[in-house]
Amino acid sequence: MDKLIAGYRNFMASRWPEEHARYAELSKGQNPEYLVIACSDSRADPATIFSAGPGELFVIRNVAAIVPPYEEGGGYHGTSAAIAFAVLQLNVRYIVVMGHAQCGGVAAARNMETAADTPFLGPWIKLLEPAAQKCRHHDQPDLERETVKLSLERLMTFPFVAERVKAGTLSLAGARFGIADGKLEVLKPGSDTFETVSAR
Question: Counting Cβ atoms within 10 Å, is residue 89 exposed (0-12), middle (13-18) or buried (19+)?
Answer without folding.
Answer: exposed
